């Protein structure tokens, strides 16, 4: 599903160049649930941004579902993001003047899905994350966990190939974190490929594979016994 | 870009961001409103000018006499110049190409009595053609005619307010009034657009006046009407010709400033029109300044709007919004708000102008108006520039990497 070869990325900081990613290689198959771990500054968020086409790579290659991702102009990148990827952010990033359903329906709007169908599909995914009753509520009327569930529903609504989550539990307390992880695991159980960036050990162990990053290189890449979040909920 | 879906999206954004919508709408509406009102006031000023100067014919020369200040051809200076009846004939003979009509004018202040009412009025001793020069409008009865001149009749044409003062609501035509001790028969009543003062005049035949003034043939002033088709250049040529002719005839030095005066209405009118045009230009300049201020205002708001929405646009881009979609969303919203509020401002402005009417006459503004073409042009101009003002920050926003936009707080 995802194939990364010799990935380099550096940032210019004034006169200095900061080499963030120093030649990463890995492959993620369909249906995997991968945690990317590392301390701050290890390059994990940069990696996720490149995978999410929010940022461009300097060197190496990136193939997503057999499509080489390179030399993208903004329009093409937008279309790929819309078709291939779903995003979940630490700070939820819901549009505050749109209610839950409208937020979930937004990627479908950019897919030019008719309004009626958009709403039906948005409701379907809200139901899946258990927030059907909250469909008409604005984000500021929801709790943190609920917001993240809306964000997950939004990411899923476009039926992406890969779900990318950047510290999805970073702004949540542990109970709520486990609820969100439970949801992510269930989505993974349905066969969706999911990538999570996290620095929390317990969250990482709820995934099936942990990729450990340190100073821009992969120091460890191992499959783990998945801890089910449902036992904590 | 113009599907119903897009509009719904835009309406929702507008509805949910009332303050922002109000601010940008208000700026635009106010800009257009002030433009329309100012421009209308400019037109009102011009209207007032036209009212002031538009009541007399413009193809007229008034020739007055004075005292010479220079000796000329053996004549001493400080000589009093007077016109006689023969001057009328001479001008008529010498300027047939230019002349439309000619009338002498002798103005005196007289006490006028009817029964117990009496008042002081200007009596103008004139020829029948004087009616054209003053654009005197007859309300009832008739004006002086050639027979009045020939027979030196004691007939008088009185102004509307003279009739009102002396006769009240009664009809004055056919009655006799006492003008400076002489009885005249009222043969007509006139009105004049020149205002109250001009409607307190009395016209009598100049020959009658001369007969009563010890049978003199002196004239105070000469009114010359020239053919309108001569235009401005012809009027100036006529002016010069008459001046030279009379100086020659009366032995006045061509350099003497005081022996003879010619008031050229066409020339004055041209100057006044130029003045009014300059006024209009100043007002238009200020008005367009307002439009430019409006454009700058809307540009500022658009920059602010885009800045405020940076994060939202980042989210939208992460969810798959193309740069075109981002620009479209912002632009359509800005153009929509500018259009609606622009036309609202324009309509309010026009409503204010039309409700004004004569209320500001004391400030020299009469019936202010703006032609629809100018108003719509200004509004469309603001919409176009509002669009451009929206486009530049929108394009910039569309180019921001989503990752940068998402980090924006």
From TrEMBL, chain A:
Location of the ABC transporter domain: 2-233
Organism: Pricia antarctica
UniProt similarity note: Belongs to the ABC transporter superfamily. Macrolide exporter (TC 3.A.1.122) family.
InterPro entries: AAA+_ATPase, ABC_transporter-like_ATP-bd, ABC_transporter-like_CS, MacB-like_ATP-bd, P-loop_NTPase
Protein's name in the database: Putative ABC transport system ATP-binding protein
Assigned GO CC terms: membrane protein complex
Keyword field: ATP-binding, Nucleotide-binding, Translocase, Transport
Single GO MF descriptor: ATP hydrolysis activity
PROSITE patterns attached to this UniProt entry: ABC_TRANSPORTER_1, ABC_TRANSPORTER_2
Automatic annotation (TrEMBL), chain B:
Domain MacB-like periplasmic core: 21-221
Main location: membrane
A matching Pfam family: FtsX
Any one GO molecular function term: transmembrane transporter activity
UniProt subcellular location: Cell membrane
Coiled-coil region: none
Protein keywords: Cell membrane, Membrane, Transmembrane, Transmembrane helix
Annotated ranges, domain ABC3 transporter permease C-terminal: 285-402
Keyword DNA damage included in the entry's annotation: no
Any one cellular-component term (Gene Ontology): plasma membrane
Stretches that traverse the bilayer: 21-41, 278-305, 326-353, 373-392
Signal peptide boundaries: none
InterPro entries: ABC3_permease_C, MacB_PCD, Macrolide_Exporter_MacB
Topological type in the membrane: Multi-pass membrane protein
PANTHER family membership: ABC TRANSPORTER PERMEASE YTRF, MEMBRANE COMPONENT OF TRANSPORTER-RELATED
UniProt record similarity statement: Belongs to the ABC-4 integral membrane protein family.
Stated name of the protein: Putative ABC transport system permease protein
Organism per entry: Pricia antarctica
Taxonomic lineage: Bacteria, Pseudomonadati, Bacteroidota, Flavobacteriia, Flavobacteriales
């Amino acid at each position: 599903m995802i194939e990364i070869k010799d990935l380099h990325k550096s940032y210019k900081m004034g006169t200095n160049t900061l080499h963030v990613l120093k030649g990463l290689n890995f492959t993620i198959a369909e249906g995997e649930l991968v945690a990317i771990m590392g301390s701050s500054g290890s390059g994990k968020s940069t990696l996720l941004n490149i995978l999410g086409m929010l940022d461009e790579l300097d060197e190496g290659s990136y193939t997503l579902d057999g499509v080489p991702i390179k030399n993208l102009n903004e329009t093409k990148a937008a279309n790929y993001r819309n078709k291939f990827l779903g995003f979940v952010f630490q700070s939820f990033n819901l549009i505050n003047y749109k209610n839950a359903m409208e937020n979930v329906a937004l990627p479908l709007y950019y897919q030019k899905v008719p309004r009626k169908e958009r709403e039906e599909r948005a409701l379907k995914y809200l139901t899946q994350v258990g927030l059907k009753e909250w469909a008409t509520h604005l984000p500021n009327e929801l709790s943190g966990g609920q917001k993240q569930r809306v964000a997950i529903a939004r990411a899923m609504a476009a039926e992406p190939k890969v779900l990318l989550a950047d510290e999805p539990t970073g702004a949540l307390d542990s109970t709520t974190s486990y609820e969100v992880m439970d949801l992510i695991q269930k989505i993974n159980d349905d066969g969706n490929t999911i990538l999570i960036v996290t620095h929390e050990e317990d969250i990482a162990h709820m995934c099936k594979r942990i990729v450990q990053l340190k100073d821009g290189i992969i120091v460890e890449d191992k499959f783990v016994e998945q801890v089910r979040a449902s036992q904590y909920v | 870009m113009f599907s119903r879906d897009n509009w719904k999206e835009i309406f929702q954004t507008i509805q949910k961001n009332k303050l922002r919508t109000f601010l940008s709408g208000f700026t635009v509406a106010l800009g257009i409103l002030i433009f329309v009102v100012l421009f209308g006031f400019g037109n009102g000023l011009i209207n007032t000018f036209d009212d002031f100067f538009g009541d007399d014919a413009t193809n007229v020369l008034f020739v007055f006499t004075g005292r010479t200040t220079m000796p000329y051809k053996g004549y001493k200076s400080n000589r009093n110049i007077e016109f006689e009846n023969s001057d009328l004939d001479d001008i008529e003979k010498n300027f047939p190409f230019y002349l439309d009509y000619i009338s002498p004018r002798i103005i005196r202040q007289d006490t006028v009595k009817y029964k117990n009412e009496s008042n002081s009025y200007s009596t103008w001793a004139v020829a029948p053609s004087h009616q054209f020069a003053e654009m005197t409008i007859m309300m009832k009865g008739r004006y002086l005619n050639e027979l009045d001149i020939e027979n030196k009749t004691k007939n008088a044409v009185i102004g509307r307010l003279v009739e009102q003062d002396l006769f009240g609501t009664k009809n004055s035509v056919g009655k006799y009034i006492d003008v400076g001790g002489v009885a005249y028969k009222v043969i007509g009543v006139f009105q004049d657009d020149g205002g109250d003062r001009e409607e307190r005049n009395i016209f009598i035949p100049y020959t009658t006046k001369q007969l009563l003034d010890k049978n003199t043939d002196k004239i105070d002033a000469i009114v010359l009407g020239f053919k309108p088709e001569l235009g401005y250049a012809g009027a100036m040529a006529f002016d010069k010709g008459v001046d030279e002719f009379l100086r020659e005839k009366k032995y006045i030095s061509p350099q003497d400033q005081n022996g003879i005066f010619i008031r050229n209405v066409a020339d004055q009118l041209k100057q006044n029109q130029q003045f009014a045009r300059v006024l209009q230009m100043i007002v238009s300049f200020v008005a367009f300044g307002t439009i430019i201020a409006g454009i700058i205002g809307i540009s500022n708001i658009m920059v602010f709007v885009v800045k405020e929405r940076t994060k939202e646009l980042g989210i939208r881009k992460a969810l798959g919004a193309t740069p075109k979609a981002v620009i479209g969303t912002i632009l359509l919203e800005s153009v929509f708000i500018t259009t609606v509020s622009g036309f609202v401002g324009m309509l309010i402005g026009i409503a204010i102008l039309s409700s004004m009417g004569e209320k500001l006459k004391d400030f020299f503004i009469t019936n202010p108006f703006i032609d629809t073409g100018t108003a719509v042009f200004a509004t469309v101009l603001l919409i176009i520039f509002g669009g451009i003002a929206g486009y530049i920050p929108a394009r910039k926003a569309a180019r921001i990497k989503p990752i940068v936009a998402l980090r924006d707080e």
